[in-house]
Design brief:
Blueprint (H helix, E strand, L loop, with lengths): L2 E7 L6 E3 L6 H12 L3 H4 L29 E5 L15 E6 L3 E2 L1 H6 L1 H20 L6 E8 L9 E6 L9 E2 L4 E6 L5
Parallel strand pairs: 7-9
Antiparallel strand pairs: 1-4, 1-6, 2-3, 3-4, 5-8, 6-9
């Protein structure tokens, strides 16, 4: 089962990748040169053995220092096969969200690096929503199984971004529809 996430607003939202922190410039060049210059015996038995380094366009490679740096979200226009999901939303502009939107204390105990990466993805999502919403607007998020775009939400929640604090565990669950709003500033 693939869980898909969708976001909608009453205005167009920016699309693309958000929150990623790749290394650039001289640092990236040095890292890639180090890999390229490894002797062939170091590549034996690894995925690097299958790569023809002479054919690689190193400018198109994205390099990250940590899992957390490689974490972020993508916002895409809907594909034709996903168009039915618009029926779920009140807002007229609907987009697909990509990210892994879950973290827990158990995850933190087992794999701190993974926990930080997953929490960052949710933080980036909430920052994205917060930066694209005004006091009078709502932004909706709906999560469902691939192909089950018109199923009624099983869980309906509302989050006020003005007061929300992440609990110890948080997840965008399959079948969940969330209305995001901001309380009026006083």
């Amino acid at each position: 089962m693939s869980v898909m996430h969708y976001i909608s607003a009453d205005k167009e939202l920016p699309v693309g990748g958000f929150g990623f922190k790749p290394i650039e410039g001289e640092e990236k060049r040095k890292y890639l040169e180090m890999i390229y210059q490894q002797d062939e015996s170091a590549r034996k038995g690894t995925i690097l053995e299958l790569i023809d380094f002479e054919e690689i366009d190193f400018d198109s490679i994205i390099v990250f220092r940590t899992m957390e740096d490689a974490s972020g979200i993508y916002v895409y226009e809907l594909s034709d096969s996903e168009k039915d999901v618009v029926q779920i939303f009140k807002n007229r502009f609907v987009y697909r969200l990509e990210g892994i939107f879950y973290f827990s204390e158990k995850m933190k105990e087992r794999n701190l690096e993974l926990y930080k990466a997953r929490k960052k993805e949710l933080n980036v999502l909430f920052e994205y929503i917060s930066s694209n919403i005004t006091d009078e607007e709502i932004i909706e998020v709906y999560s469902c199984e691939w192909g089950k775009w018109t199923e009624k939400p099983k869980i309906i929640a509302e989050i006020d971004l003005s007061t929300f604090v992440f609990p110890e565990e948080f997840e965008l669950r399959c079948g969940e529809y969330i209305i995001f709003k901001k309380s009026k500033s006083t």
